[in-house]
Structure prediction request, 248 residues.
Amino acid sequence: MGEKLKTILITQQDPGTEKNPYAELAKKFKLKSDYRPFIHVEGLESLDFRQQRINILDFTGVIFTSRNAVDHYFRLAKDMRIPIPETMKYFCMSEAIAYYLQKYIQFRKRKIFFGQSTFSDLMEPIKKHKQEKFLLPCSDLLKPSIPETLEKERINYQKAVMYKTVCSDLSDLADVKYDMLVFFSPADIESLFKNFPDFKQNTTRIAVFGTTTAKAVQDASLRIDVMAPTPKALSMSSAIEQYIQENK
Prediction:
């Protein structure tokens, strides 16, 4: 389609290592790939958090779905001078999140459970501890499937918004053009139009990950050129590679 693909902007944090699929893609096809998050996370101040009328010590278990949730849970507890008891149980979506807890607690002494990487994995240990009262620290953009799953299993839990997702300032990109933009969430699209209200797609290719992102792109009357995941391409990098091969 049109011009050869030479430049790609990935709307995520730079992984900071050469060993990542986009770097390999860039090397293989002689592309220039840049990273720039279109959104970032800001923690709620303790005053704003208190308006939710949630007492952290009313809960015996905490469900962590991300490192951000870990950071902001312990930050708010510290700001509000709440000592987290050693008896607190932690349920983490992945092993990486569980190990990240070491930043705040002594790992060996605590009760920590984790899933493989999906929320449905994590439901196994949660269901085994149904007697606990769970706190779910999250952002204002929590995936609806998480509370739905907990409610379906009749888990006693409460959602606690501790941080929010906000649009980043992208004004320095105003005169920079990329052959392809890669989006991962509806908030990325919101940020695109907040920063560039007159954005016209023209020949720019758009790659999207996930159905909710795809819907946001379509709602904005933009064209999707690359979609992931698909049965043939489970990752975004493999979907882009497929697109390049097909459009040589």
